[in-house]
Amino acid sequence: MTSLKSRFDTVPGTARHRAIRFATLSMAAAWFAVIAQPSLAAVNCTIAATPVGFGAYSVFAASPNDNGIGTLTMVCTGGGPGNYPVTLSTGQSGSYALRVMKSGANQLNYNLYTSSTRTTVWGDGTGSTGSMTAARNTTTNLNVYGRIPAGQDATVGAYTDSITATVTF
Fold first, then answer.
1. What is the mean pLDDT of each run of 10 residues along the chain (169 residues)?
2. Closest Cα partner for 3 from 85, 89, 112, 123?
3. Which sequence spans correspond to the domains of the chain?
4. C-alpha 26: how far from its chain's center?
C-alpha cells in the first residue's frame, strides 16, 4: 500500500504552500494548502480542496453551527481495480473524539463528518470513525461536513486547525 498525503496547513505564503482560506468569517477559520506529490508507482492522484466555511459562531445559539461544508476533489489514474480510501487526520487535538481550532490560547471545539447527517466522524476508519473513497480513473468530489457544537464560551477571533487528507493506494 502506498499513500498520497495532502496537508491542510497553517503556514501560508511559503514556496511549498499555496494557502486557501478554509473559513473566513469572524469566529472559525482554518488555512490549508495542498502539497503536490510526484506520481507514486503506476498510480497518479491529485487532490484539490475548497474551503469549509463555518461563518460566525454565536455563543448564544442553542443549535450547533452546521454551516461548514467543503469539498475534496481527487483524480486518481492508473493502478489496479477498486477504490482508494481517503482519510483525515485528527489535527491539533490529537483525537477524533473532538477536533480543536485555536486562536492564540483560546480554543473552539469542532468536528468533520462524512455526510450531511453528521453522524460519522471522518477519520481513519478505526474505532467509530469512517473514511470515504476515491474512484479510480474518474474525478471524485467528496464533501466535508463540519460542525461546531453549541454552548461553547469562545472569545472572538480567527480560529485555525491543520488537517491532513490521505489517499491510500
1. 39 26 29 37 82 87 95 88 90 95 95 97 96 92 97 92 88
2. 85
3. 3-168
4. 19
In this predicted model, what pLDDT tens digit does every residue of 33-68 receive, in sequence order? 333 344 345 788 888 888 787 988 999 999 999 999
Instruction: Tell which CATH classification among 2.60.40.1090, 3.40.50.2000, 3.40.50.150, 3.60.150.10 matches the domain 3-168.
Output: 2.60.40.1090
Q: How far apart are CA 21 and CA 36, in angstroms?
A: 18
Q: pTM of the entire structure?
A: 0.77
d(CA 168, CA 148): 28
Contacts of 149 (CB under 8 A, 6+ apart): 64, 109, 110
Please give, one letter per residue, the 3-state secondary structure of the chain.
CCEEEEECCCCCCCCCCCEEECCCCCCECCEEECCCCCCECCEEEEEEEECCCCCCCCCCCCCCECCCEEEEEEEEECCCCCEEEEEECCHHHCCCCCEEEEECCEEEEEEEECCCCCCCEECCCCCCCECEEEEECEEEEEEEEEEECCCCCCCCCCEECCCEEEEEC
